[in-house]
What we know:
Layout: E1 17-20, H1 30-45, E2 49-52, H2 66-77, H3 105-118, E3 121-124, H4 128-134, H5 158-165, E4 170-173, E5 180-184, E6 188-192, H6 194-197, E7 201-206, E8 216-218, H7 220-230, E9 235-239, H8 243-256, E10 262-266, E11 269-270, H9 286-291, H10 296-306, E12 335-336, H11 339-344
Parallel strand pairs: 1-2, 9-10, 11-12
Antiparallel strand pairs: 3-4, 4-7, 5-6, 7-8
Helix pairs in contact: 3-7, 7-8
Amino acid sequence: xxxxxxxxxxxxxxxxxxxxxxxxxxxxxxxxxxxxxxxxxxxxxxxxxxxxxxxxxxxxxxxxxxxxxxxxxxxxxxxxxxxxxxxxxxxxxxxxxxxxxxxxxxxxxxxxxxxxxxxxxxxxxxxxxxxxxxxxxxxxxxxxxxxxxxxxxxxxxxxxxxxxxxxxxxxxxxxxxxxxxxxxxxxxxxxxxxxxxxxxxxxxxxxxxxxxxxxxxxxxxxxxxxxxxxxxxxxxxxxxxxxxxxxxxxxxxxxxxxxxxxxxxxxxxxxxxxxxxxxxxxxxxxxxxxxxxxxxxxxxxxxxxxxxxxxxxxxxxxxxxxxxxxxxxxxxxxxxxxxxxxxxxxxx
Length: 348
């Protein structure tokens, strides 16, 4: 990434709409909760609508009970929504249902078909190990290996690729050279070169293992873009580990003739080792605090305090933070969460 100038294209709709999009691959932790809190506050402070979307396409990593667990955690934190999936408590649905990505496959197939018709995608039979051995180096920004273009122009279509190779074929978007610029509401002007940083990226993959082996599944970038447009999402707030994904999503939005939402990428919570907060830093799941009897006002107060919204040691309910909320108060750097800091939440 480098600095640059751009004029972001915004939605033409007047209603502000945002989304909370957990993936049921595990329990929500403090980092997830902080990002969701900021996303929710931003929309509610503007009088907008919140959509809950379950991003459950990563079949092999989906954990039983994780979806309902995420819904319960969000409700406990006081983060409500206007549209979302029906859950075990019979809450949910809305004008843009369904809200689980596994129930929206037909929509993705339509989008993929449009890209195939335009000739901007091609079949790829490369395995991960082949890509890693052929590429020069991983992308420094998000540690993603750049695709070297091995299958570019090699096969006419998926059927030919699979017949000749005897392997399942994914679909990749053919990325042009050059820099792509956009305005991030938190970080300002950003510029990426997807051709240099990730190369041609997958929009549809083939599951190679597990109960869904052989099934064709839309990749994250494609599904995200299709859903945001279909659900009229105007504002996206998420962690800055996904900043580089924005360039790829803008490419797909342009190719599909879709509008651009506004983007806000906030700094992550990190451990004392400088890495994104995860299991290696101990149990930071919301479930742990709930089961230990920690009040939601304690945890929300702590999240708000590290986000510059209330003084340290405060207790707060999410709804109380809406009035006067400004993303400008959020620290510009990642927040280091030590084991001591986590224990302090229990004594607030």
